[in-house]
Design brief:
Oligomer: single chain
Helix content: 25-40%
Distance between the termini: 34 Å
Number of domains: 2
Shape: globular
Strand content: 15-25%
Number of strands: 6
Strand order of the largest sheet: 1-3-2
Structural class: alpha/beta
Radius of gyration: 16 Å
Largest sheet: 3 strands, mixed
Length: about 180
């Protein structure tokens, strides 16, 4: 992945662009505007179709450019909820946004750490990396990290030390 350049921001996207994107997402999810479905156990199979539409990079990296399309992410979040589709959208959007900011803003990370961030962002963009997000408590333990059992990367926020911890190998953590 190349170094990030200026990408799309909320100011670049019109209401019509968001409407068209939402319609495409609804089509993949198979839902109408006000339709509610029962949970779909095969929802993760649709994730790659949604990745192809750009759902995994609304607030992350896309083709070397940092995206910050929070309004687009919020708009389609309603559609995911309407479909009750068990896709990792919230964690993906949060992790993608935080890691993209690290890549753009960080000046004190070593090459290995930057390579890990780039690798996870590339995996998010392709849909090959499922991520989970959590917080580290005062005892140094991350509790209730939704999706950690199926994730291939974890981003943990250590609020006590004002830092992020990226684990990009499932062998690095234990789920209880």
């Amino acid at each position: 992945m190349s170094e990030p350049t200026a990408g799309a921001s909320a100011n670049d996207v019109s209401a019509e662009d968001i409407r068209e994107f939402r319609n495409a997402v609804r089509s993949v999810l198979g839902v109408g505007t006000d339709q509610l479905n029962e949970p779909d156990p095969d929802g993760l199979a649709r994730w790659h179709e949604l990745v192809d539409l750009g759902a995994s990079t609304l607030c992350g990296m896309a083709e070397g450019q940092r995206q910050d399309l929070v309004n687009g992410a919020a708009a389609i979040a309603r559609d995911f909820g309407a479909a009750l589709s068990p896709v990792p959208f919230a964690a993906t959007t949060a992790v993608s946004r935080m890691l993209s900011r690290v890549l753009v803003d960080s000046t004190d990370l070593g090459d290995d750490a930057l390579d890990s961030v780039r690798s996870v962002l590339a995996g998010i963009a392709s849909g090959d990396t499922l991520v989970a997000y959590g917080r580290i408590d005062a005892a140094g333990v991350a509790r209730r990290v939704h999706g950690a059992d199926i994730a291939s990367a974890l981003l943990l926020e250590d609020l006590g030390r004002s830092r992020l911890v990226l684990l990009d190998d499932p062998a690095q953590w234990t789920v209880r």
